[in-house]
Amino acid sequence: LSIPDWGATRFARQERRDVTAIAREIDGFNDIARDMCESRRIAFVDIRPVSRDDGDSDAMLADDGLHPSSAMYARWVDAALPVAHRLLGDA
Length: 91
Prior knowledge:
This protein has about 90 residues and is mostly helical. It contains 4 helices and no strands. The two termini are about 20 Å apart.
């Protein structure tokens, strides 16, 4: 799994973090991770879009406003499950 974009959370805003810089740095890291995985034929699931889509809603965050809630984890599982099924030959 990629690193989710914590800059999309209310914590980042409350701490007055540069959310554009956070996104750029996370994108850079994840792009390198994806390339490394692809070169080694390792599955890579990009959860950045999921973390950025509604990633600031109360339902998607723990009480600290930074960490993901079980609902967000469930969305990440939904993103990863088709890849796991494909790898296991269940698709």
